[in-house]
Amino acid sequence: METVPLGIIAAPNLPANIAEDLKNEVADLLSYTIDDRVEWKVESLIDPLIGVAENTNEILDKVVNIKKEYGWNYAICLTDLPLYSGKHLVVADASIENSVAQISIPVFGFMPMRSRIKKAFIQLMGELYYRYSPKDPFTTDVVHMKPFLKEYKNKKFPKPKTLSLSLTERVEVADNEQVDVRYMIKSRIIGRMRVLAGMTFANRPWTALFSFNKLITLSFATGTYISIFPTPWQLSIAYSPGRFIAVMILAILGTVIWVIFSHELWEKPTEKGKKRWRDLYNWTTFTTLGVIIISNYIMLFIIFLAAIAVFVPPSLFEAWTGLDEEPTPEYYFALVWLITSLGTLAGAIGTGIEDEGKIRDITYSYRQKQRYYEIEKEEEEGKDQKAESS
Question: Which of 7, 324, 368, 374 lies 20 to 30 Å from 140 when distance is taken between CA atoms?
């Protein structure tokens, strides 16, 4: 049986994790959906440039060079950068002539991102393996990619569903040196929403959840302190639901904005930076921090709710608020809601003394600069080695 080597080249962080999963899973899927007469040998490689280059041709040139270096028949790269074709976001590109392709991870959104990427991977391998001609009719159903695909005999896999790239459009590209086939998001609005969700997910905000320990500590201390005064108790029974929501939004937004500007996370216009990338990075930073602050808010709310439920008897609540009736759970809920919001707003000051490195690590633009630095360092080391050898 002939062996077909296939390489998966990924940018660091999330793309590398997805590449490792694909490496362990796609060999059987390729045999099942593409061709079972060959043995698929799948390898993976991490390359920083794949996560830095914002130009499609530059990425594919790098992929072609790596494919030749490792002796692969095919190579598909995974980048965590959004790619554009005009004003439309690109899902994937394929160079039929060079047997290489690329997939932009952020446009797959949040969930179920990995299963979508796996389907796209199989789709692109079909493009590369069967080498479609622009004159041939095309369907996005992988099952119809080859007329003599075997029957569904392998019980390990269910009958494949249509592996279409939803909300995408396949186009033949004639005016590009590298790209022959391109998949793009049809709707610009949906594309932007999905790419923002995907970039936020790629930032992995859950890993930074406990990096804001000073925020949690100061927020809890502040909330505990103000709860010993009667004013918050009285306000909690006087406020309407609309006021509670307004105070909560003010606390969360205020904290996010304070973190961004206190640590200079908002990328400013530069001569080199393109506006579309800068806007994406900035809004991704905003949504990532929003997820973290909201998660901390919920955590703080649960802590206060448990504390007040244990230490505040109904008689004390009546005495501090002047209620003429026994307080219901709704009254406790309102008090905790107000204390959590006020504590979060005051605790935003604590983010100013957080470890700046940890906070900046969650932003896209910072990681890009780090990758550029790594590449420049490797190039300088390579030049020094050549100089020494000569």
Answer: 7
